[in-house]
User: Fold these one by one.
Assistant:
Number 1:
Amino acid sequence: MAELNSSLDYTAQDIQVLEGMEAVRLRPGMYIGSTDSRGLHHLIYEIVDNAVDEAMAGFCTKVSVRILPDGSVKVEDDGRGIPVDVHPATGKTAVETVMTTLHAGGKFGGKGYQVSGGLHGVGASVVNALSSSLKVEVKRDGFLHEQNFERGAAIDSLESVKKATGTGTTTTFMPDEKIFGTAEYDFGVLSQRFKEMAYLNRGLQISLISEWHKEQGYSPWKQNYKFDGGIVSFVSQLNHNKEVLQSDPFYVQKTIDNTMVEASFQYNGGYSEQIYSFANCINTADGGTHLTGFRTALTRALNGFARKQKFLKEDQSNFSGEDVREGIAAVLSVKLIDPQFEGQTKGKLGNAEVQGQVDSVVAEALIYYLEENPNEARRIIDKSLTAQKAREAARKARDMVLRKNAMDGGSLPGKLADCSEKDPSLSELYLVEGESAGGSAKGGRERKFQAILPLKGKILNVEKARLDKMLGHEEIRVIITAVGANLGDDLNLEKLRYHKIIIMTDADVDGSHIRTLLLTFFYRNMRQLIEEGYLYIAQPPLYKIQAGREVHYAYLENDKDSLLEKLEGKRGLSIQRYKGLGEMNPDQLWDTTMNPQTRSLLRVTAEDAEAADRVFTELMGEEVAPRKAFIQANAANVKNLDV
Ligand code: 0RA
């Protein structure tokens, strides 16, 4: 790199710059996380973030992102343009400084870089260091200025090339293939991110045009986002197709002690809690202090209002946080100067002061909103009252199940074909859909350590995703007894009778429905069992392919295709698609799905189960039309939950 700069004046500072750039190239992971697709996306985000900061400062209305056919990326904004004059202290232009100086802790500090002043230039130098070439073009003061870099080093100096009107900054870079190898861009991931950013920055237009994807026949390859309603539009989108309890979403925006707090919510007729939280436009999937502040404000304001208006009687207990969040769709966005991200995936905001700031902004605005909108307030309180009642009913139902089980003297259900092994860590329980598959499983199992519990095909047919109804169901009670660890607050994993609980359902819509329901049941009542990794999904094959005497099984569509290719030309090739587990005889079921030596099991994660819970709530939701549409649109996804 050094010789590239030989034509320029060389100073100690230049050496520092080069060392900084070299450090980034030596340890790219430290700066952008990884050098796979995610790292590649990160480069784009860094540059776009700078433009968005300029928008937050109120000077930029459009950001365009282009991925060119050669894989280079061009980000253009119509902001003020990075300053082009030479800074007396450094002897360099701001453009060159931004592009070549690593900022301690990744951030500029101090005055002039307030929230709305943004965090300009945070990552541009990192992108520059990791690009085989980078060109920055600035329109400012009546001229177009240009400078070029290679792997972080300036190869020329900033020059004004021609007269130009308007202002703005354009950065074009080619990610260095020495760093990123063959990593690829994901259009869906990028467009999702830019959509969120457009929601979070009301009125900002962000477009993504990828000729790189277009050339590969990928569709869509362009998207354009602009939301004049900002996070209110975001909330409306979350409630799209749902019955809503407020005619318009609640909204507040206020800056307090340099923290900008913005929140919006609207209740729907469903039962799930959907709260999207962001800090400086970064999705905080694991919440953090801002989310805690929002939740406490919501609970306190609604309890206060319900008490004051006597919707909550004196002998009634306060709403719990869960009660007031049932059916809420909310977006919370905070912008602050020095966000601290915590947790393994850095998805949690840690700044302690933010909790109180969000709490006070939201509570104050919400109390006012409830007073001003008595009809909406009433509907929200009614919803919380219903949730509170349902929670109490569920608790009673749970108690009843427990009492009933106790009265049975803890005897195991008659249809459970138990294993002889007594050590739970060596024992497995198969929950099998359908009597006939149950029969095959009983015939094929290794009786020593595998227990079989057949479940009726349609095990539950309730209208609403209510816990109490679910628990009242005979099939579910049988599962509770067989599993042996109780549930809810009384869950005791030491009493768990099997350390592998394996859901085995057909690869069709009914099967996926039942699996969704079982996952939801475990998630809501025995979450810890999932978290400890005791719940699994069996993977029966989709096809049996026979070539003469040879038998092969295909577990994925792809497997089938490659198997067929391999076996092509052999005599007597036959292919059977398994529509249900019941079509397999006991030996086949053992060979393909139950034999620990050859089977593959999917361990269910809390995220899988949570997703199932959401799907379940939608499936069982109140409104029929969207439910139908949902089932049609998601049948494949539901089925592929485990893929
Ligand atoms: C510092 C000061 C000024 C603009 C910017 C930074 C700026 C940086 C980037 C990075 C991408 N796009 C950008 N747009 C603007 C403006 C100072 C002034 O004009 O008073």
Number 2:
Amino acid sequence: MINVKQKFIEFFTTHPRNHREIPSSPLVPENDPTVLFITAGMHPLVPYLLGEPHPLGKRLVDVQKSMRTDDIEEVGDLSHFTFFEMLGNWSLGDYFKKEAIFWSFEFLTGKKWLGLDPKRIYISVFEGDGNAPMDNESTLYWKDAFAAAGITAELGHPKQGVIGNARIFPYPKTKNWWGPAGQTGPCGPDSEMFYDTGLQVHDTKVHGPICHINCNCGRYLEVWNDVFMQYNKKTDGAFEKLAQQNVDTGMGHERVTAILEWLEGKVSEPDPFQTGLFKNIISSLESLSGKKYDGMYKRYMRIVADHVRSASFVISDGVMPGNKERGYILRRLIRRAVRFGRLLGINGLFMKTLSEIVIKDYQTDYMELNKNSKVITDTIGMEEKKFGNTLGRGLKELDKYQVLTGKIAFDLYQSFGFPWEMTAEIARERTQKIEKKLFEEEFKKHQELSRTAAKGTFKGGLQDQSEKTTKLHTATHLLQQTLRVVLGKHVRQKGSHITAERLRFDFSHPRKLTDEEIDKVEQIINEKIKDNLPITTEILTLDEALVKGALTVPEARYPEKVKVYSVDNFSKEVCGGPHVGFTGKLGTFKIIKEEAAGNQIRRIYASLTG
Ligand code: SER
């Protein structure tokens, strides 16, 4: 079997590409209020795309864990996942379109690399609009790359489909533009590579009159995306040119693996769920259910397999099931998997067994799975048990009604723990529709959380690197050091989360803080603010940073070279930034609340005013 990840890293780290490998960031972004999960490799790299120097230089390569749950109900086909692994190479103001395109082509088609037949590769480019011109440059480089392989590649038109030598097709922003994932931030035109499976699956009634590379019929599979990040979308909607031209590429590991195993004849269709990535989970599902991975059971098994893999990874990055934000998404994943397990005819507990398989299959690449294996399997097992008890009764209750209303959806949520989305999905299976508004009205009546905020956050995307969050980030560093001064050196960061309004800081400490301690912490921080201390940064190897006493987050993984932020000689932390230049900018620091956040872990909410 071709180890795609290994090849990718090898290709990009060797001469003349000379990239440096960076570890995957956790799925839960640090200090970013606007997204629940990392949804793409660019996300943790935004400061560097905007021009901050990266400790490892201008050429990076990584395999980033990512989570997208916008399309959760699409999972079950050949191409949708919630959790996935994204392979990417990065130029931070170094090489641009030419190298990116030639290297993409070489990696896809080179005999030493993936060895795909170049005749089966098709390309899309940005067609241009009022914000940015047609990407003629990429078109030319692609033509050259194909020519070197003896193939004449011409610009075609999607409306005419794949005819003659047409191999490169222009599409609008909806298809060939990437980012910003949030309201503002780095973005640019992209160029995608497709593999022609040759499968005759186009159905004009479903997929449109003409089969073209982006028509979604499944004949042409997108394998890789080269993004040329050269713009910054500003709050007023304008696109300004970035000071540096970046490259961000993303290759979906699952998709590429499926194509390769299919070409090797290992699987019957380019189906990621039949590949080595999922086959142990699927075969365990087959034996648990006594059903074959076939017909309608394929969809059910894919859903369970995808969700159990996601849930395991999400828990390993510190999320617990709950009623809000990340916890809610995790709960939804587990409960949805349990329901589809029932539809497969599995009546006993099964999720824990499956999560054990995920851990076993993925622990070599992700040591956090092994490290947290007990917490993963226990959490999944407990959540399954809890929901398993009420699922059957809830479904019976649900069956009593001909028409499902918002009130019923709410009662199912309240009494049987049915996530709203699950009831809505069941309604759709019965070809009914429930208005979310009605459910939310019931919800509000009960003074519980509104999911709207969480949804907004989730869709929101990248952080607007606003001044307020930057200030709170610097305040977080002051807080950690001050807690160590006041409470002792055992204090270490356990979690951090910042919104424009407040910071939240979790740290190791065995008991509640006294009023005196809280006063003292506030007083010291406000003194440090008044002293207007400078914040400086340096790039060191991780060892040097540790020797110099820089604090790290115990659970985090770091590359060999890191950035260290110091607040004068008061605090020193390994951190990606950004921070303010002087503490005088912060205003007045105030602790809003102090509470328990787990066994031997305390949580502080604090804000800055003025
Ligand atoms: N950001 C781009 C994507 O997610 C390329 O990495 O497709």
